[in-house]
Amino acid sequence: LKAGCHAPVGVDTSVADEELALEAVALDRDGRQRVHARRTGPAANPVAIADEVADALCDQGADELIARAG
Fold first, then answer.
1. What's the average model confidence in pLDDT over 22-44?
2. What sign results for the dihedral spanned by CA atoms 15, 52, 38, 67?
3. Distances in Å between the alpha carbon of 9 and those of 16, 34, 40?
């Protein structure tokens, strides 16, 4: 997503029984617009799961929200 440390983006992860769950949200500056994505998969493959979440967020316009917030 190329979001900096001040970007309105949040991520939560958990691992249970070798399954990784990654959930992320991106918002506009005032929090009125929000996009959300969640994916799960093998904990041994975290980059693929993160890429899927990032792609899902971008498909919903997260890159535009982040750019406007910057």
1. 94
2. positive
3. 24, 10, 19
pLDDT above 70: residue 7: yes
Residue 13 Cα to chain centre, angstroms? 10
Cβ contacts of 13-21, under 8 Å, gap ≥ 24: 15/43, 18/42, 18/43, 18/44, 19/43, 20/45, 20/46, 20/49
Output the CA angle 49-27-65, nearest 5 degrees. Answer: 90
User: Average pLDDT, stretch 32-38?
Assistant: 95
Structure tokens at 36: 């959300």
Q: How far is 6 from 52, CA to CA, in rounded Å? A: 23
| Residue 29 CB contacts under 8 Å (≥ 6 apart), including other chains | 8, 68, 69
